[in-house]
Amino acid sequence: MVRLARLKEALSVAEGDPELVRSQLQAFGHQIPLLYFMLFVNTVAVAVTHLRSAPAWLSIYIPVLLCAVCVIRCVRWWRVRRRVLTHDKAVPELRRLIWLAGIFGIAFSAWSLLLFPYGTAYEQAQVAFYMATTVVGCVFCLMHLRAAALLLLSIVILSFATFLVFTGYPVFIAMAVDMTLVGLALAFIIELYYRTFAGVVHAQRELQASQQNTQRLSDDNFRLASIDSLTDLPNRRSFFASLRALSEQALGSGGGFNVGLIDLDGFKQVNDIYGHASGDLVLQEVGLRLLALAEPGIFFARLGGDEFGVLAQHQLSNETLVALGQRICDALSQPYQVAGNVAELSGTIGWAAFPEAGTTVAQVFERADAALYVGKESRRGTPVIFSTEHETRIRRSSLVTQELRHADLESELFLEFQPIHDVLTQRTIGMEALGRWHNARLGAVKPEEFIRIAERTELILRITEVLLRKALDEVSRWPSELYLSFNLSAIDISTSARARRLIDIVLASGVPPHRVSFEITETAVTRDFEQAHSALTMIKQAGCRVSLDDFGTGYSSLSYVHRLPFDTIKIDRSFMTDVDSNSASKKIVKSVLDLCGNLGLECVVEGLETSSQAEVVKALGARAVQGYLFGRPMRASAVRAYLQTALGQSYALGARP
Ligand code: C2E
Ligand code: MG
Ligand code: MG
């Protein structure tokens, strides 16, 4: 049974193994010309020797027909030698070849058996020799088609050996036995060879599979190394690789491209208020919105945190860049659904063109960053294209940094004080200390400028100390009912040790801590909410007060900032410009005043310049106010004179002291 099954397998096509079938056909393809050449030459040789002895149909017509078939098959092979067969076509082709081998075997055997009785003993021996050598040659050519080789071998050997035995001549009988033994040995060799061949094909397939697997793994690794896993956008590394490639291409071809840097405004707050999981959702949404804007030649990447990059592969006009930037900003400023709430964010984008803004990758990136910086400072939520004006700003910035580093802070820094006024009692209740810097080379530098630069370089820590000591020194000379409001930067409260240092300075000054209120802006607080919370709590526990400065310029809600231990909220002066004419501004101021009342917080309205504004905010319920109307920032020496007038007599609302 097992043998029968083996025999059946040996004579059939390995249908379930497409690779093997295709390899068999391919290998056989190389042998075809040799096979037909051998058949052709041997047949002609036998036919020629029988021309005289055998009838024409046996010595001419049949051999010509057989040789013609060989030539036709050879020509066909030549035509299709390069075709690649699909598995569906390869299996029937292999089957056809097996049938063909059988038919050829029968045809050539029949011809030589018919030819055998003609001619002398020599010619008969030639036919027997022809059959034996031709079958061995053909079987070797059919080595890769096991079934065809075995079929051919069986047909030829069986028919010829039987025929020879029946001739009765001992020489032919011996030849028949010999042929049968050689046939068996050949069958054995074919089986062995075929197995080795199938094994090699399988091994190759496995090798290929493992190579493909390795390739896939390395593709996966490459993908992981170049894709940001959160947003599925290309990551920083991939962005810079593209940037380098673009710059090389542009330098070679003389073309150009544009780099954009996008920063989200208000992302930090979302992270702090709703948690990191929600922050991640926002970033994913940003990624999707950016991807929706990608088009041929425009790529987006996530550079880290809430910073994204965009590469516009071609040189674009400023108008096109602004339009593209605006589309990006518009898409990013649509509301985000976060943890059942709606979060409002915006994106600012800084553009720089290669080679106009910079001729190296680092330069063009830096310039895009400078444009972004300018955008974040003054034009949030809009696209900004790098210009030489930004360059001037950067130069100025590094000049200020340098001067600040080498400044004699004790002698160059001083303070101006601006009164905080109670509109009910019409008396000055406090003074806000405002830092001033006069430098021999730069002259007077605006606080917005030097404070921002000092914050970046951490020089602010020293500046705060110097200014706080100077301010406290003044306060000690003021009437005891006046408090000092002193501005802090985020860095001043970024560690507990730094907060402790401020408390120590207050305590060392002898000024009662309750007379000192520290102002901190909303954006500073939201940089690190937990740290801000613990630092402000420390300051409160030491007896000082804390105020939230410039409220309304950031993104947080009052209920959020109420989680911090503030005593006072200062409404930003930007609401005052049209508070007497714009009902929306009026409503905002009113609602903040009401909320402060409900939460038990004091509220200072900043930036009052006209009596009409003052009337309106007073009617809305404001009590503490600050602004040019009640007093401009003044030198310490002027404060004493001011206070003598202000505290010595009550003055009417709206009248300048
Ligand atoms: P701020 O704390 O909101 O200070 C109020 C700013 O508004 C001051 O500008 C003040 O001169 C100005 N101001 C007051 N009343 C009016 C008004 O009626 N109309 C207009 N248009 N402006 C008014 P200044 O002195 O230029 O300070 C700007 C900012 O710089 C301050 O805003 C504060 O954030 C920061 N700053 C000032 N001094 C210091 C300091 O010593 N340390 C820190 N960290 N920041 C400071
Ligand atoms: Mg302030
Ligand atoms: Mg303010």
From TrEMBL:
Residues 397-647 form the EAL domain. Pfam families: EAL (PF00563), GGDEF (PF00990). It comes from the Bacteria. Residues 255-388 form the GGDEF domain. InterPro entries: Biofilm_reg_signaling, EAL_dom, EAL_sf, GGDEF_dom, Nucleotide_cyclase, Rev_trsase/Diguanyl_cyclase. Gene3D superfamilies: 3.30.70.270, EAL domain (3.20.20.450). Keywords: Membrane, Transmembrane, Transmembrane helix. The chain crosses the membrane at residues 32-51, 57-76, 97-118, 124-142, 149-166. PANTHER family: BIOFILM ARCHITECTURE MAINTENANCE PROTEIN MBAA, DIGUANYLATE CYCLASE DGCP. NCBIfam families: GGDEF (TIGR00254). This is Diguanylate cyclase (GGDEF)-like protein. It comes from Paraburkholderia terricola. The lineage of its organism: Bacteria, Pseudomonadati, Pseudomonadota, Betaproteobacteria, Burkholderiales.
